[in-house]
Batch of 3 targets.
Target 1
Amino acid sequence: MTTSAPARELLDAPPPPSRPRSRRKRPRLPYLLIAPALIALLVGMGYPLGWQVLNSFREYGLAQQFGEAPAWVGLDNYISLLTDGAFWSVLIKSVAFMAVTALATMVIGIGLAVLMKSIPSWSRITLQIAMLVAWAMPIVAQMTVWNWLIDDRNGVLNYLLSFLPGVDLVGHNWLVDPWSFFAVASIIITWASVPFVALSVYAGLTQVSDEVVEAAQLDGAGGFQMLRRVTLPILRPILVILLLLQLIWDLRVYAQIELLQGFGAAGDKYDLLGTYIYGLGIGQGHFGVAAAAAMIVLFFTIALSWFYVRELIKEDQS
């Protein structure tokens, strides 16, 4: 079969030049949907943060509260803090308190989550309800209950411990010695934080594939090996964000320490960063120095968060 001359010319002609692809337009709807939230966040947090940054470079004390113009002092507030031994003492205590409390919360929370995965449903539901009640309890109510437990005159803890042979703790005040003060504070905060960790980890455990568990059991993995080599690596993203949140919350703790100081002895020996900054600003009227201390805590918190943010960026790019 032969082709005609016009058809042959069409077949031999070079293809028409391809048009450059137009860049795909991104939909605008997601940006429009998140715009109100971003605007509210900028308005609600932008002004207080800007005011805090500005005051950290000014001498803003009681005189400025009565109309005197604040004086610009540059980095003097930061230098005053960083050369003050009391600030470093509070910072070291706060970091140690944060590390111990967050670690205890994570270990106990993971243990309770594993326990809930293996116990019958009726006992699991009972435990979950109890933890939800403890977690939902307001801080003031929590501290009132704990004050009744550790009270030096009528406390249940001293009464029960006195039944041990050779132990007489009736009238013992747990809040006078700084070591026992922070131990009590750590126990209270751990008790209040464990339900959030336990329920979050348990929710992650329910999503672990049964096929993965069966394969590990066929390979001879025992209970502890299953947890360490299979379950925890799968739950790593959840555990990282939970640990990060606990570190941030325990670094910025304020209400529990303030209320415990009201129940027992008060003073610089019993301060963490939250109460220390409050004392600088509200107690002593050094609002500029307090603002500088708050900014240092903010930088420290960002440094703690950067590890998780970097992991999120890597996961998004991969």
Target 2
Amino acid sequence: MIIETLEIFRKVAEEKSFSKAAEDLFLSQPAVSSHIRNLENEFGTKLIYRSSKHVDLTPAGEILYEQACRIINQYQEAKEKINQIQSIVSGNLRIGASFTIGEYILPELVSQTARRYPNLNINVTIGNTEEIAQGLRQNRLDVALVEGKITGKEFILEPFMVDEMVLIALPSHPLAKIKGVTAQDLEDQVWILRETGSGTREFSDRFIETLKIPVKHSYGFSSNTGVKAAVLNGLGIALVSKLIIQKEIKAGEIAIIPLEENLPRLSREFLIARGQQTYFTKASEAFLMELSHYSQDTHENNL
């Protein structure tokens, strides 16, 4: 079917790799190459520049990529509308999530959704908040869950959960032994931070700026795992979601630094984000219903 070939072409264009596209689509690389050759024969022109190091679109390929995205989206919209008539939740659902949500909430949520709707194909993209926002802008995602603020009239945003943030360090760190750490106690510390564009980094920067805390030195990591490893190795202190350090707290490997009561409350909202122009499918509705159940259960368990 031509839609399948266009989806393969789009994947090659986005991944800039035949082998990566084949891996993502569970196809052999020769099969992917065959589909691209068929497209080039169909249009009578080269669509992709191939070299040992690079895969890039030709001018004709750029035109086809833009149109292919529209055709695929229109096909999915038609398919979803037909499925709605038949009361079947099926088709493809493209979910984006920032790292904390993607690593610590989404696996269980996707599993629940998949069990309830076995005809639904779910594809997950995890990145920092800015990367996920870009995915929504480019219509590569149907819905996203983010921990940082994203701006723009093109987005619809809705909170779904409150996330508790905590300041952490090794149990042997001097701050971990103080009952009520003040802003002054936090001066001239070494901070472990997420990368720019991360919702956690945004929260940490705002906390430090609000309290006007002088920072002795900072180290940046592009993942929650990297931040935790740096803290575990005694590199410094970090402000993170409590979700990511449950095991380490129970094992006594990491300590939560208790803050003085008059310091700003350490919490933030997790947000549902989707594009204003994105067609809201039955699959998206089903996923958000599962998210609502998850949020309610989590809230009740924390009471």
Target 3
Amino acid sequence: MSSAPTSPPAVRPTSPPAVPVDPRPRPRRPRRTPLPYVLVVPSVLALALALGYPLVRQVVLSFQDFGLAQQFGQPPEWLGLENYRTLLTDPYLWRVTLRSIAFCLVNAALTMLIGVGLALAMRHMSRSVRLLLQTGLLLAWAMPVVAALTVWQWLFDTQYGVVNYLLTQLGADYTGHSWLLRPLSFFFVATVIVVWMSVPFVAFTVYAALTQLPAELLEAAEIDGAGPVGRLRHVMLPTILPVLLVVGLLQVIWDLRVFTQIYVLQKAGGSAQDTNLLGTYIYRLGIGGGEFGMSAAVAIFMLVLTVLLTAPYVRAMLRQEG
């Protein structure tokens, strides 16, 4: 006896799992308001007027023949690139440029080394000694440039200078020695003055960065066997590297455009022809010689040179941020 074939049982369709509904309301996106941009506009306009207009005026002036006659109303003559062609073919400009770059790099390097060294030393000083050193640095930094130069001129004076007296007492023949006549000794005196006035900024800034170092990080490095040099090289300096880059960038800019120290020392007895830097060269072309168009061209050349010298620092800062 055969049985009838049975049909497979019907499969009920399964419903998709229920998605849990979040009872919390979705946060609203904050509405964009133009208030921040409105608040920034006055500052941007002030910067554009204070920095943008002089720069544009300087660029325009560098393409013109602008001298003493133009100071009394005569319209300037448009020269195009003639001022730049004259300057770039002038051997004296390149001597002044190389002299300025060498002076800038030497001063910036010495300032950074001495400033960082003082900042590291202040971490190990007692409170009273540290306060005494910081007070001296602060006074040196706050002293007006002309007042400081007056003191330094007296120290290196030919007849009554303390430096000549001390060297003579030590056995060297420095009686009546003039430090400003020869370019090498002139720039030695200028370097002493510039570094002396720049070190406090570096020392204070780097010391402030060192005080923010985590003590646990230094203790961990010491437990791992790192000595003082190893902790300095592998822990402290890499941690404060962003601060060092910013301070180094500022020092290069300031030392490249140094003017007052060189100009006052030239007036005290130095030869301007042999000791001009870009700052004093621009001044003597414009104010001294009445060639304002030519001096504007040198100023633009100096601006481009500053950008080229600071480009490695800017790239390192951007890499550090990345």
